[in-house]
Amino acid sequence: MLLMIANEEYRQFLESVRFVYGYDFTEYAEASVIRRIRSFMETNRIGGLKELGRLVMKDEAAFEHFIQEITVNVTEMFRDPQFYKSLRKNVVNRLATYPFIKVWIAGCSTGEEVYSMAILLREEGLLERTVIYATDINQDALQKAKDGLSTISNMKNYTENYIKAGGKNSFSDYYKAKYNSVLWDKSLRQNIVFSVHNLAMDKSFNEFQLILCRNVLIYFNQSLQNKVIDLFYESLCPFGFLGLGNKESLLFADKQKCFEEIDKKEKIFMKIK
């Protein structure tokens, strides 16, 4: 049976979450959030939004479980391999001109994209002078990213992605098998800073040469997308690069004309003013 969620009830619930916990989902794509709330309530046998509200407002552990379930954590190593191939071709040579490189991976989930970037930078001789800032709203996902573990059953797919992305070595050089998991090489993790950051509410915290935020904006409404693009613009150095997901764009962003398309298909942009 499909649980009904009234618009007013939905808005009140999101406002309560924002007031009590500081998480703002009011500008997330409504259909997507409602679908995930319904799934959470059905899985946990919660009869309605008022019951869910009472539960998460008085029980912080229940709220953390709720956040883990409704935030999206779909990711994989070298996802969309041609994107990484384009980074090697169009961005790496520019990054190499900086004595010190700062990369921000926003919405890093469980870290597969972070370790993909670390491997790419290692192979291009840039990792030692790079700091990668990996941020996400989901603390559970961040801890998994920090632990540097992935499921061993994914390695065949990840290896194929790595090869298609222009990988220069043997992919198995970068991890060690550990029971049913793999542990990413410690040297990849040394230059990564993991931290909670809420794109809907938090501000810029540094200046970066490269920002990757892929397949995150699709979960926001147009107003929040625009706000986040402004945040990235503010956080990029002059001629810094921005990488988005293949279903995302700057088409309706206020700062659209402040960026130049470096790779139209792979959604890589450069800040030009």
UniProtKB/TrEMBL annotation:
What InterPro entries does the entry give? Bact_Chemotaxis_MeTrfase (IPR050903), CheR_C (IPR022642), CheR_MeTrfase (IPR000780), CheR_N (IPR022641), SAM-dependent_MTases_sf (IPR029063)
The record's Gene3D superfamilies line, in alphabetical order, gives:
Vaccinia Virus protein VP39
Instruction: Tell me the superkingdom of the source.
Output: Bacteria
Name a Pfam family for this protein.
CheR
CheR-type methyltransferase domain boundaries: 1-260
Q: Which GO terms describe its molecular function?
A: S-adenosylmethionine-dependent methyltransferase activity
- Annotated signal sequence is none
- Put simply, this protein is called Chemotaxis protein CheR
Q: What high-level taxonomic lineage is stated for the organism? A: Bacteria, Pseudomonadati, Bacteroidota, Chitinophagia, Chitinophagales
